[in-house]
Design brief:
Layout: H1 17-32, H2 39-52, E1 76-81, E2 83-88
Antiparallel strand pairs: 1-2
Helix pairs in contact: 1-2
The protein binds iron/sulfur cluster.
Length: about 110
């Protein structure tokens, strides 16, 4: 089991820019915070960095021209399980928060008008 295989150690030369920026920001936040970052905070930072690099948080390229969001896409679906969880019906969705869609995210190349 790869202990310590996460932040910092072993970052490859082919590391995408958004991953490098995410790792650097998370390392800085961890050093300046008395508590470890939550999973949701790390997920949010990673998503923001991916969008800055022109990628949708699910890994696809962003749609050009910009302006549309997942909210206006035909593939965004609401799962009602006590609360409402938004998912993309093109993804392999789990029941967990890692595949939850944020409706404010910029649309990816697979966007279709609702
Ligand atoms: S296809 Fe792309 S734009 Fe549409 S909901 Fe899925 S991730 Fe968002």
């Amino acid at each position: 089991m790869g202990a310590g295989a996460g932040a910092g150690a072993g970052a490859g030369q082919n590391e995408p820019g958004y991953l490098k920026k995410t790792r650097i920001l998370m390392d800085w936040l961890q050093m300046s915070s008395p508590r470890p970052l939550s999973v949701s905070t790390r997920r949010k930072i990673r998503a923001e960095n991916m969008i800055k690099e022109g990628l949708h948080p699910f890994g696809m390229k962003l749609r050009e021209p910009r302006g549309e969001t997942c909210k206006t896409c035909n593939h965004s679906v609401a799962k009602r399980l006590g609360n409402i969880y938004w998912k993309c019906d093109l993804m392999n969705n789990t029941g967990g928060p890692g595949t939850d869609l944020r409706l404010k995210w910029p649309a990816c190349q697979l966007w279709e008008s609702a």
